[in-house]
Amino acid sequence: MKKSVCAVPGVLAIGWLALTTHAFAQHAGHHPPAASSPYAGFETRAIKALSDAQIADLKAGRGMGLALAAELNGYPGPLHVLELADKLALSDEQKTRMQVFIHAMKQEAIAIGEEVIAAEAALDRLFADKQVDAISLMKATKAVAEAQGQLRVAHLRYHLDTRAALSPEQIENYAQLRGYVAQP
Fold it and tell me: Are 27 and 90 part of one and the same domain?
């Protein structure tokens, strides 16, 4: 019976833990603290994976950092080049080209942004309607990825065009003005 004697301290410890936990819960207003998630509130979004700001950016054709690989590696974007037109000493022809690039990029990005939104909405609906399976999941996520990839290509491609329209000196000056390299 020594076995039961050794078990008594364990039982007492468990009882003490239960009582103190209950006392702390009472002190906290009879409710244990609710668990919090960084996603709390996202469940009310129309499309769970996209914030209102992201949807607005997609609908407006904004870059959303999709072209950082280009921007930070010496391939300026047309919008920022045009913003720095005077400091870069852009010619009238270069200014016009930047405006054309911006307009074309925005139109293309808006159309593809709508595809991203639609693809994300379709994926969301599969889960919301409890209709998702392995095959529909694969198709829906592939559609999202393809749309997102097309959007990124659209933004990056105009960085290629912009670089081709600038002189090496303008590209170097752009990098300095944007803070990517130290000022001389």
Answer: no
For residues 48 and 123, give the distance between their C-alpha atoms in angstroms, rounded to a whole number. 10
Asked if the structure places residue 182 within a domain, the reply is: no
Residue with tokens 């364990």, as numbered in its chain:
10
Neighbours of 45 (CB within 10 A): 15
- Looking at residue 128, what is its pLDDT? 96
Taking a C-beta distance cutoff of 8 angstroms, is the pair 146, 66 a contact?
A: no
pLDDT in tens, 60-116: 999 999 999 999 999 999 999 999 999 999 999 999 999 999 999 999 999 999 999
Please report whether residue 145 resides in a domain: yes
CA distance 59 to 35: 35
Token pair recorded at residue 123: 């994926």
Expressed as residue numbers, the domain containing 2 is: 1-34
Exposure string of 121-151, with b = 16+ CB inside 10 Å and e = fewer, is bebbebeeeeeeeeeeeeebeebbeebbebb
Domain co-membership, 127 together with 168: yes
C-beta separation of 78 from 105 below 8 A:
yes
